[in-house]
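Researcher: First entry.
Model:
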Amino acid sequence: MYLLRMTKRPGHAHSTSEPILMQTFDASGIDKEYQFYDEEAARVSQKIDEELKRDWVRRKDAQRRQVKVMLLGQAESGKSTLQKQFQLYYAHHALDHERPLWRPVVYFNILKAVRMILDELDHELNNLSSDDSVEGQAVAHSLAPLGDLSEEFSRLRTKLVPLVAMEDSLASELSGGVAVTGGRTGVYVRAGWQALVTPLSPNRSRALPGTGGLSPAVAQVTSLASRTLIAVQNEVDELWKHPAVRILLNNRRIRLDESAPFFLDSIKRVAQPDYLPSTADLLNVRLQTLGVAEHSFDIELCGSRYNWLMYDVGGARGQRHAWVPYFDDATAIIFLAPISAFDQYLEEDPRTNRVDDSLQLFTAICSNKLLKNSHLVLMLNKTDLLRKKLEAGVKVRKYITSYGDRPNTYADVSEYFRAHFIQVHRRHDISRRALYVHFTSMLDIRATQDIIVNVGEAIIRSHIAKTGLA
């Protein structure tokens, strides 16, 4: 090897015309050393390349085994309950771990129900005498044998004021500062709300011991709610079972959340110092999610493991824009339509019937180009509530005029709604894909989990066929 050395004459500036003297020496030892370094560098580089290639293959395989499922539908259609059913079947240990966190949410559902009953009682009893409608007169006639109820309900209200007064503070702690415009009250949480109400140890990996799984602020208000509920459980039970309340409920003068009857019927069980929510409690509890919540769990099929990513999205009209970024690579769409809601209207638009809104939303899903390759499942949900309404004599034609004079039976009504959704799919589905339709009641654990197994396997088999994993 040669080294270049430049010389210059003393006292003179260096000139490019001056000769460059080259000196030789023995570099054989250095050549061998450089050769060793070159071989070592090549070996390390090759090893890095091979590891990167293996990592790429692993990530590619993991991606191919990732099944992305979106739960779509309007608010209160049952999306979160379906997500819990999937979690109960495929990842029940995680759901068991969350049970203590749902305790304050159950309390909130009860507090809200009690407050709604008291408010509606005041309104109905104060205005019933001036209601000249046929329905109003019928209710007044039914209440007449009960006599003057003002003193009795005044006593119950006085006893229940401390309980009702806690509703806003409990909602505020559970919501973690999340506010909803329009003056609506309630618990509105974003994805990961469990972490926000759970205190973590310094290593940020688990809840602090002795807290019951709840952060200090939430634990404090939950404890107070528990003690208050235990103290007034008899009054809550008396209010709920009062003949006047039953008359107003049966005549649809009091409307409660769908979960309210379940928890008010269970007040003696819930109002215990060591209360821990049951599986039925978790499925019945009402909690409105804002934004998009991701849930992940593994599913095994034919000896292979697949990572199931389920996205539970907020269904209110103002939140539906958040769905679009998740459409592009969705493996499947499970659309939930609550057919029991034929007599209800959107909270954000009281002029729009909820079944009509579901049909419009389903039309948009079927015609969306981003979803043309997604497996499509339709769940006509809340059939249990539909049966109860029809058995109570609620007429479908009163709310949906196109139903006409068809029989007001479950078989006829459910088939009528099914035919309308199928017609939407036939007219508007841009990829002519198959539509899988199921009648569901998310509170029926056994029946729902049978459907979950069938739906899950169908989605994964479709995914296998598309990705070439078979």
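Researcher: Second entry.
Model:
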Amino acid sequence: MHGGEAACEVARHLAKQVRAMVPKSFAIKTVAMNDHLDVWADLRGSTTKPACLLYVAQTVENDAPAEEAGKAIRHYTKPRSCKFCSNTTAAAAAKNQHYERRCGAGCPYVDEEGAQFGALDVAYAVVCIGDTNLLLDRQTTTAKDCNAAGQKLDKALGVLGATCLIERCEANEAEGLELAIDPWTERFAAALKAKYAS
């Protein structure tokens, strides 16, 4: 799933590269991040193979997500409560003194509509795209400094109980996105084959 103009280009590039590295039985498609609820609905209704969602999130000025990614990131980061105990996603994210895992490996968090996360066998990975040229007010900048939207999304998915397939990729457009993305793509394809190839 891609959110942002540059993220769309990167997602298409990743799909092409990964398609060449994994078995032909793997279905790969690119979807706009704003359509994330439709993707989840399809996964809930599917009785076929497990899935891995790759989020390509672009950060623009002031650590904000690109407009095309904003809706999805707000959805994943909104406050939720556990279905069975008093834990909240905010406490889990902060890991403050009031937080403890009362429901075992993870709480089944639900939102106000009753949608439950972590109930499906879905892995995820995140590619963060940012540009340190947009951080003019800072002395030194790295890819870690310009990818707040993707970092926030990655943390939220983990708190909700999703399984991270591989560590996130943080790319800096000022240095060249391919410097971070190309080697990461090889590790991602290897992780996909290890988890899903039978």
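Model: Note on the second entry: The mean pLDDT is 81.
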